[in-house]
């Protein structure tokens, strides 16, 4: 039976994708000798291990929406589920193969992961990737067999904050996405039309309280 383990060796931005996408370089290792892996139907769950890094004062302020004030972090600071993914790893001989795990990303500030990533100013984003699924393999003395992969399989990786920022800057240069309730958007749109304001930025600047504009 295969003795699999997983390792993330790096991350890069996928250029010209339909949506912002990161490619994680995944190495799969089989410690069982003389055994051919036919296919792996892999399920991956990526969690953000928010307790595994220190936060500068500026970052603590930007995490207010997620975790509250720092004096409450002992109760509110918990791992965040980023995403669940599926991928198929083709046949390989020997003990290792390398594949790109593509992770679509969003710039929607209603999503906790986006708020967290944008709240960091520098350093790394601590990730823990859990693996499960099914492996199809062929021992040397029998035909094709099937075995499950336990969720106990995991790999940790530190994603540089600068890689996230480079990705978002390349897809949305000097822009962010903000999702609004339909009724709020309709009110803002009517205000924009009634006052003949040419852009959404100018509309928001006009309706924001003056003291907020000064602080920002």
Automatic annotation (TrEMBL):
It comes from the Bacteria. InterPro entries: DUF6084 (IPR045730). This is Uncharacterized protein. It comes from Tunturiibacter lichenicola.
